[in-house]
């Protein structure tokens, strides 16, 4: 399993797999309701539910293709070739604008319906500096936020190159925030004021979004692994994974450990 995602209303849980299988289950019973098989030895790497009022989700494939799965009386699957044989590991959406991330590429697409996908250009990656000049540019997450630069700012995290703020309306870099760490993932609090960043060394760092100042850290060694992290409970807590199959819940203000839910695996 490469990714899990609940539908916006919590009715479904979607899971994608390296074997090219997408499973859509009932969140209440766990019953598998729908299955989609890509075939051809192509892996499924990312999932994104598209809207609150539609039973649709996007999936990024290992060969650069993005598919749109629609749940109605029966399943329909359409798709388009977004990247040239690069793994689509990151997806994000704002209105009709879909963003796809694959290795170093971040592309903007318009999807207004009728299965038409129109390219809106490529986002320029950040420039390298001395400390990362020999490192590959690798996108690790995509997020939308209301910032002081724009009410429609795209935040892009890069493994070696920090966080880029992209003004979608002006189609230019609004700000670049270099971090002296390897960035595995990021999440934005529900109020849009705070970032939590998963770094591959010491754990998780909390930043104020609009001035990019460090508010505090959660020490939780990741041992070089890309560990998922997310705000929960309205932003009052942080949910994190670990390299050893353990889930932890932290107080977002004090950064103290609240709970380690027990589960098999």
Q: What Rg do the Cα atoms give?
A: 18 Å
Mean of pLDDT: 90
Query: H/E series, N to C?
Result: EEEEEEEEEEEEEEEEEEEEEEEE
Number of helices: 0
Q: How would you write the strand order of the largest sheet? A: 1-2-3-4
CATH topology call of the largest domain? Methylamine Dehydrogenase, Chain H
| CATH architecture designation of the largest domain | 7 Propeller
Q: Approximately how much helix is present in the residues?
A: under 10%
Keywords: Repeat, WD repeat
InterPro entries: Quinoprotein_ADH-like_sf, WD40/YVTN_repeat-like_dom_sf, WD_repeat-ST_regulator
Organism: Pisolithus microcarpus 441
Protein name: Anaphase-promoting complex subunit 4 WD40 domain-containing protein
How would you describe this structure in keywords?
mainly beta; Methylamine Dehydrogenase, Chain H; four-stranded antiparallel β-sheet; WD_repeat-ST_regulator; Anaphase-promoting complex subunit 4 WD40 domain-containing protein; repeat
């Amino acid at each position: 399993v490469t990714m899990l995602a609940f539908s916006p209303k919590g009715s479904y849980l979607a899971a994608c797999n390296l074997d090219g299988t997408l499973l859509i289950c009932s969140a209440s019973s766990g019953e598998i309701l729908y299955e989609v098989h890509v075939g051809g030895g192509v892996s499924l790497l990312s999932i994104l539910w598209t809207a609150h009022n539609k039973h649709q989700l996007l999936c990024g494939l290992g060969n650069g293709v993005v598919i749109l799965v629609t749940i109605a009386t029966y399943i329909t699957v359409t798709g388009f070739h977004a990247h040239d044989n690069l793994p689509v590991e990151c997806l994000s959406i704002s209105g009709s604008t879909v963003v796809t991330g694959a290795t170093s590429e971040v592309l903007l697409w318009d999807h207004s319906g009728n299965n038409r996908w129109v390219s809106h250009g490529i986002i320029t990656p950040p420039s390298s500096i001395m400390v990362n000049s020999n490192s590959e540019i690798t996108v690790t997450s995509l997020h939308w936020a209301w910032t002081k630069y724009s009410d429609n700012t795209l935040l892009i995290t890069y493994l070696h190159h920090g966080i880029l703020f992209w003004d979608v309306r002006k189609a230019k870099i609004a700000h670049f925030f270099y971090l002296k760490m390897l960035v595995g993932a990021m999440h934005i609090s529900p109020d849009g004021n705070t970032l939590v960043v998963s770094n591959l060394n010491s754990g998780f760092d909390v930043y104020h979004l609009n001035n990019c100042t460090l508010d505090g850290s959660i020490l939780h060694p990741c041992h070089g692994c890309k560990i998922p992290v997310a705000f929960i409970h309205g932003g009052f807590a942080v949910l994190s994974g670990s390299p050893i199959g353990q889930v932890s819940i932290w107080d977002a203000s004090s950064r103290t450990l609240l709970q380690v839910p027990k589960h098999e695996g």
